[in-house]
Fold:
Amino acid sequence: MNIRNNSLANIIGVLYMLVSVGCEAPPKDISMPQTDLSSEYLIPMPSTTVATNSAFKLDQYTRVVTNPVDGDLVNVANYLTDKIAEKTGLRLATNDIEGEEKEAVIYLLQQQNTSWPNDEAYRLSIKRDSLILEAPSAKAAFRGIQTIRQLIPEISNDTLAEYPIWPIATGSIEDHPNFEYRGSMLDVARHFFSVEDVKKYIELLAYYKINVLHLHLTDDQGWRIEIKSWPRLTEIGGSTEVGGEAGGFFTQEDYKEIVAYAAARYMMIVPEVDMPGHTNAASVSYPILNGNGKTPQLYQGTRVGFSTFDTRKDTVYAFIDDVVREISAITPGPYFHIGGDESHATKKADYLYFVNKVEKIVQKHGKQMIGWDEVAQADLDSTSIAQFWDNERNARSAIDKGMKVILSPAKKSYLDMQYDTLSKHGLHWAAYIPVDTAYVWTPETYVDQIPKEMILGVEAPLWSETISNMEELEYLAFPRVIGYSELSWSQEENRDWENFRVRLANQTPFLDMMNVNYYPSPRIDWVKSNRSFKEILKD
Ligand code: ACM
Structure:
């Protein structure tokens, strides 16, 4: 039988048959407190929510059921049961048809017959004895299970039964993303971050339905990705970082590990090799690439705009061909980011010539080019993408060429900007960005004359001049990146600062459980969770 092509009713019927194998008396019905699905603290806010004011009982008898022949969906189900175990201590079975009769069942169903608003849409139907997640694909189901995770209360309601119960509000949620590209960028060049650090960041972002991690892999201060055909890039160019610390780099195996970890969370990695400026580390490793007329030295400062490749040398394009080829071969996503920002040491004509040539190299290796907004000055193909960070005219030029744009306005979305004058880390050349400023803007209309359909999405970059470890990273990224998840996922009519700030205040159980060193902005009335970060550190 092809389960995928059957109607929902049939599928549910089959699944009910499966779970009723090997009956035992179900636990007695236990009356649950009233819960209201529409006032849960979900981020990002779903498209529509209808509450029916009863409760589904998540407890030791609950099981998770999905189509056992759909490996991807089984993986999503297992991810959900792992996360339920981490949060509640309950180890639920997936597709345990031999076990005892369980009263409450969580179904993950692939449903391709409905017309979904887009390929990440999902629907939750929560009744007293069933929680049904329907989605067109495992990817969409993965987004949906983040909502389920958020609906599980931090603590169980121990008083109602002999065993703990986590009541989940009943009703239905229909949800889909506003933008297909919902990202954050991490600069591993100014300071290097380990594979474990990057994985933790990915895991945190996935909870908020973010689906892109852009890695800024190279800059003046460091080259962080192994290129087998040009080994000195990492031997020399990877040896230091801002402030003179030890630097580091990802081997290609490390990078593949990050890509796979992200892919298991339906997140794509966008690799960036910044050029023709921001290339000092490459030029120190191979001086033949250098075009600024000076002898390159390892650099540990934070000034920008002094380096450039020699854009008229064939060797430079042979080098770029190797770099793009090697990285593209281990990057399943469709994009390759060439940087292109702040090339102040490159003559304008050379810059335009360079960007055009590199676009063709990226295409030759099967990828679509992304570049910071300056690249839109070149004569680019409509399939290339401009990442707006600074210059609105560049963003409009991109649109005139039929290119899409990613919105990362420095004044609103740069995670490395300080919250205020007291911030321990960060810069403020673009702005101070407190938590409300980060949230209160409208990507759909932020740049004049850019229609919504030309906006691929929103990305919040985290540059690392002032941060060198995970605690500092988390201080700048959290809580602001949670707001960017809502700006990119939720429809405009569902975004509201006063409402968001209450939901944000209630993220503390998750952030504390994950040991996130978030900045406790005084603009948020943070809810004290069961275990605070500092208490965990004391343990
Ligand atoms: C940038 O901030 N230079 C893209």
Observations:
- The chain has two domains: 3-175, 181-307+335-497.
- The pocket of acetamide is lined by residues 341-342, 372, 389 (CB under 6 Å).
- Residues 3-175 form a domain with the Chitobiase; domain 2 fold (CATH 3.30.379.10).
- The first helix runs from residue 8 to 19.
